[in-house]
Amino acid sequence: MTFLLKISGLIDGLSRRIGQLIIWLILASVLLSTGNALARKLFRIGSNAFTEMQWYLYGAVFLLGAGYAFLKNAHVRIDFVSSRLSPRTRSWIDIFGILFFLAPLCFLLIDPSWPLFVNAWQSGEMSQSAGGLIRWPVYLLLPTGISLLLLQSFSELIKRIAFLKRMGPDPLAQKTDDKEPARPEDDETSRSEEC
Questions:
Q1: Is the pLDDT of residue 19 over 90?
Q2: Is 192 a member of any domain?
């Protein structure tokens, strides 16, 4: 289990680095959108390439960020239900969800998206818009993003099993910083200091 936890730590590190990259993609997207809007309104010029680049960047943010969002526990949950469950029950539910829903869905999405990218790469597919961009980079985002989400789900599975075996902290506990989940003993220490 120690070896698997080290692998989980490496996957988490990769997801954090991608999360840092996404910050820059968001900035680039905002600047490009602003520049595009200003050029259209002030100078009455526009570019299909810049417009397509905007949605390439939006796609990159959402697809590449799925694994990072899973790491940060930022995906949508039914909090009013999950907050009433014990940490062990939540971990069991997550394990079930990862194994029977998330991982199969990732495989189902990767399978048809890879040939789509390969065909676009080999054919040199271009946008149908005048002055548009090549399409293979945006097609590559789908299998890459879903693969990163699948990789992070493997890490989350390891952490939840470790928690159930009492070999690691609760991965769903409130996080104290960007690097580690809160440990149960931290909560007890802070409660005793408050008294």
A1: yes
A2: no
Confidence of residue 105 (pLDDT cuts 50, 70, 90): very high
For residue 28, what are the contacts with CB-CB under 8 A and spacing of at least 6? 57
Of 47, 101, 128, 53, whose CA–CA distance to 120 is shortest?
A: 128
Specify the DSSP class assigned to residue 183: P
* Residue of 171, 144, 172, 181 whose CA lies nearest to 67: 144
What is the SS3 assignment for 175? strand
* Of residues 74, 98, 87, the one with CA closest to residue 154: 98
In percent, the amount of the chain with pLDDT more than 70 equals: 87
Average pLDDT over residues 64-81: 84
Residue 38 included in any domain = yes
Q: With respect to residue 193, please indicate whether it lies within any of the assigned structural domains.
A: no
How confident is the model at residue 194, as a pLDDT? 42
**Structural domain count, the chain:** 1
Task: Report the predicted TM-score, pTM, of the whole model to 2 decimal places.
Answer: 0.82
The single residue listed with the structure tokens 């680039």 is: 28
Provide the domain limits for residue 162: 2-172
Q: 61: closest CA among 95, 30, 99, 94?
A: 30
Encoded tokens for 27: 């900035």
